Amino acid sequence: MDRYEIIETKERIEADNDIQAEKVCEQLKARKVFMVNLMSSPGAGKTTVLVRTIKALQKKYRIGIMEADVDSDVDAKTIADTGTRVIQLHTGGSCHMDADMTRRGLEEMGIDDLDIIFLENVGNLVCPAEFDVGAAKKVMILSVPEGDDKPLKYPLIFQVSDVMLENKIDTASIFDYDPALAEERAKQLNPDIQTFRISALNGDGFEAWTDWLINAVEEWRKSL
Amino acid sequence: MKIIELHESVTASNDRDADAMRIAMKKQGTLLINLMSSPGSGKTTLLSSTIRSLKDEMNIGVMEADIDSDVDAKRIETLGAHSIQVHTDGMCHMDAGMTQAGLDAMEQKDMDLIFLENVGNLICPAEFDTGAGKNVMILSVPEGDDKPLKYPLMFSTSDVLVISKIDALPYFTFSLEECIKHVKRLNPGIQIFPLSAKSGEGVDAWNNWLRTEVKQWKED
Q1: Distance (Å, rounded) from C-alpha A16 to C-alpha A8?
Q2: Whose CB has fewer CB within 10 Å in chain B, the N or C terminal residue?
Q3: Parallel, antiparallel, or unpaired for β B3-5 and A116-120?
Q4: Which of B39, B163, B153 is nearest to A140 (CA)?
Q5: 3-state SS of A152-186?
Q6: What is the pLDDT of residue A94?
Q7: Residue A64: beta bridge partners?
Q8: B216 touches chain A (CB under 8 A)
Q9: At what angle do helices B15-28 and B96-104 cross, to 10 degrees?
Q10: B85 vs A17: CA distance, rounded Å
Q11: Where are the domains of chain B?
Q12: Any long-range contacts for B105-111 (C-beta under 8 Å, 24+ apart)?
């Protein structure tokens, strides 16, 4: 007879989270709200990408933003300047969002009159990749100064993402960053990943990304 | 604008283990430095430059912590420093127990200086004492001067801040002055070394700091 039971805490937490994520996903589908889970390292440009994306889409769609941070509201203030609805979520030290935190954020924000919601996840390449939040699409940003070797070191986030945005592409020559190599490494992990070379600062390559997003929203709506 | 607090209890039960490790490393005369930063801030590049500068003066070892790769350990090995790779198996930080396991696997008794290159992450590594004698963090210029506002714990718990990639200052809207102001507000005692491991600017001050610390660690 076994003298003690071994509990795989991590697996259980993730299994519970998946059930919650499914509920969030169903709720968003019922209200036809398309949610994007935006993930990256700190300082890769999530907020700058969001601001430019909002400006490109705000005439076409009603957009809401959930800013997740450990304990600040720097980004929410930046987003609020665009006139978009934004709420700030504090994770209280936790390094990622999970499905239940997301559900509470959506409740607080109110989603009935929105078309698209961006969840700006906590700046981290590790844990956010493990926790499904019920989003329609997962988008990750790899910024040029981080280096083209990041898919080798943080494979999971590249495996689970639908899109990789290679941001700060205008600095590629300064940092010896090879976009083709980064894309090849990402596609080895995830052959279906869509990649876009962009600069959120000067707008290079941005239209291809926003076109993709519009198409993804429309396809998703048709599938409902 | 609404702010919602999502609290989660974090266990910090490894503080005692970390303290015991620090005492043992002190007795042994080996300074363990816990090196932390975001992914891609230049931890491995700084280590490479440091090893090249100091390897003839002291015995240096490197413990590379990664989720599941050995890209960095291979880079360090080519420099001739003793290195081992620790896999955290998905975990986003090192703790005292994992660090001790890494030290046990290393032939490190006669080493003067060991760097633990933590997992690339600005959040969780700051919460877990690894038993290191000094905590050093890197913030790279492309990440932005607002990072102390967004990840305050990391800046509060570090003894040293290295501001890396300063050769890229002309290309980014990064104010050294603003950054230092934010950091000093969180941690008035922190030492700050702006440098570029690529151009070599500022690395002497960092290397000298290491020399002094290694010497002091052995003395008192």
Answers
A1: 12
A2: C
A3: unpaired
A4: B39
A5: HHCHHHHHHCCEEEEECHHHCCCCCCCHHHHHHHH
A6: 86
A7: A85, A117
A8: no
A9: 30
A10: 31
A11: 15-215
A12: B106/B61, B106/B63, B106/B82, B107/B82, B108/B30, B108/B61, B108/B82, B109/B28, B109/B30, B110/B59, B111/B30, B111/B59, B111/B60, B111/B61, B111/B82
* pLDDT in the model for residue B9: 35
The backbone torsions φ and ψ at residue B70, rounded to the nearest 5 degrees and listed phi first, read -135, 30
- Structure-model confidence comparison of residues A163 and B106, the more confident one: A163
Q: How confident is the model at residue A2 (pLDDT cuts 50, 70, 90)?
A: very low
Residue A70: which of B1, B123, B165 has the nearest Cβ? B123
Cβ pair A150:B39 closer than 8 A? yes
Q: Which two tokens stand for residue A16?
A: 């519970």
- Helices B43-54 and B203-219 cross at an angle (nearest 10°) of 70
Residues A155-169 have a mean pLDDT of 98
Minimal CA–CA distance to A149: which of A183, A114, A106? A183
Is there a contact between A174 and B10 if contact means CB atoms under 8 Å apart? no
CB contact under 8 Å between B153 and A93, yes or no, is: yes
- Which of A42, A76, A127 shows the shortest C-beta gap to B143? A42
Record the tokens describing residue B56, joined without a space: 């003839």
B15-215 CATH choice from 3.40.50.300, 1.20.1560.10, 3.20.20.300, 2.40.37.10: 3.40.50.300
Residues of chain B with pLDDT under 50: 1, 6-11
- Mean pLDDT (chain A, rounded): 93
The single residue listed with the structure tokens 């083209």 is A148
Beta bridge mates, A66: A87, A119
| Interface check B182 vs A, CB under 8 A | no
Positive or negative, the CA dihedral B137, B141, B143, B149 is positive
Backbone angles phi, psi at A115, to 5 degrees: -100, -40
Contacts of B52 (CB under 8 A, 6+ apart): B79
**End-to-end Cα distance, chain B:** 53
Q: Is the pTM of this model over 0.90?
A: yes
What confidence score (pLDDT) does residue A1 get? 39
- What residues contact B170, with CB distance under 8 A and at least 6 apart? none
Domains of chain A: 27-223 (3.40.50.300)
